[in-house]
């Protein structure tokens, strides 16, 4: 069983837009976080694609990735993920092939099967496209081919893209992508930061069916974990009222900007809504450094993953940066 020290730590960023703050400040903070993560030794920082959401500014994912890559030097930067139903595979390959050509050995492409938005916005993103059950596997295979050396008589060449060998991950919150990642021999990241219910089953399915490939010789699993570290459990719960309010807005079909913390969530949510949010954050680690360290160790005991990829929705940006400093100190405590 691996220890926290042996487990890779990464960050998933959505460039959250804060109440009474500008979108520009959110994009600048995403870079500040990437630079901070690089200094601390995080493995990678990924951006997630969402659309038509007032509180998320990472919609033009590849464009924002270019901004992060241009202003960092070593940390791996990628998508967690690009929502493939919204895009033509060739365009995705060209975008990420361009980034990989400019920033060799630093660019990664995580692919998701969900649209990351509502049906009307999905239609606006990819007009005339009809998604079918077998479309996602075909699209993934097409992208993989665009990153390889060209096949004989290959008619369409991704330029840039071909022969860049951009690492591709599959992301998911159900069993479908776990099975596909296993068949293709790709690394797999489970979205347990918002949909933890099928985590254990998906990891088991992926590991039991994994086929070694040109990409990996053994399974590689990361899991999403919401994280919030403060001086005490009580302070952490107070700060956590910010992400709680975000999910409460989702439940009520009112996706707003990130709100400051409040003293008493019981004045805002019903018992049923609290139960929904507790289930949503079932793997979240919220508390003092000691509480969070014990919680992460317990997750490793349960799931034995290769990597944690952390999300954090603290309203105060300085406290958010400090959260990731404290988190890395749990992995690598001072001697």
Automatic annotation (TrEMBL):
UniProt xrefs under SUPFAM superfamilies: Bacterial luciferase-like (SSF51679)
Family, as annotated: To bacterial alkanal monooxygenase alpha and beta chains.
Any one Gene Ontology molecular-function term assigned to this protein's record: oxidoreductase activity, acting on paired donors, with incorporation or reduction of molecular oxygen
The Luciferase-like domain, residue ranges: 9-298
GO cellular component: cytosol
InterPro entries: Bact_Lucif_Oxidored, CmoO-like, Luciferase-like_dom, Luciferase-like_sf
Protein's name in the database: Luciferase-like monooxygenase
Regions annotated as coiled coil: none
Pfam families, alphabetized: Bac_luciferase (PF00296)
């Amino acid at each position: 069983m691996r220890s926290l020290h042996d487990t890779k730590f990464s960050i998933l960023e959505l460039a959250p837009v804060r109440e009474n703050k500008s979108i520009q400040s959110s994009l600048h903070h995403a870079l500040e976080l990437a630079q901070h993560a690089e200094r601390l030794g995080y493995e990678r920082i990924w951006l997630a694609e969402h659309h038509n959401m007032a509180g998320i500014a990472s919609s033009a994912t590849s464009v924002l990735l270019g901004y992060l890559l241009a202003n960092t030097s070593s940390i791996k930067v990628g998508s967690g993920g690009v929502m493939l139903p919204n895009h033509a595979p060739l365009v995705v390959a060209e975008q990420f092939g361009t980034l990989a050509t400019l920033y060799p050995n630093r660019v990664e492409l995580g692919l998701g099967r969900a649209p990351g938005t509502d049906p009307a916005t999905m239609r606006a993103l990819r007009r005339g496209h009809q998604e079918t059950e077998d479309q996602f596997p075909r699209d993934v295979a097409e992208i993989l081919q665009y990153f390889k050396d060209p096949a004989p008589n290959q008619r369409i060449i991704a330029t840039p893209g071909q022969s860049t060998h951009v690492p591709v991950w599959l992301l998911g919150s159900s069993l479908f992508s776990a099975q596909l990642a296993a068949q293709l021999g790709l690394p797999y990241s489970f979205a347990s930061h918002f949909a933890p219910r099928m985590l254990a089953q998906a990891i088991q399915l992926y590991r039991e069916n994994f086929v070694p490939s040109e990409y990996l010789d053994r399974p590689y699993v990361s899991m999403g974990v919401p994280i919030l570290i403060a001086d005490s459990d009580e302070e952490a719960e107070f700060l956590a009222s910010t992400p709680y309010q975000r999910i409460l807005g989702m439940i009520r079909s009112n996706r707003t900007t990130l709100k400051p913390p409040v003293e008493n969530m019981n004045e805002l949510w019903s018992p049923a809504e609290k139960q929904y949010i507790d289930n949503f954050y079932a793997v979240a680690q919220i508390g003092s450094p000691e509480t969070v360290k014990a919680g992460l160790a317990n997750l490793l005991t349960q799931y034995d993953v290769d990597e944690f990829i952390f999300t954090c929705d603290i309203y105060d940006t300085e406290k958010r940066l400090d959260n990731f400093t404290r988190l890395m100190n749990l992995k690598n405590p001072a001697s």
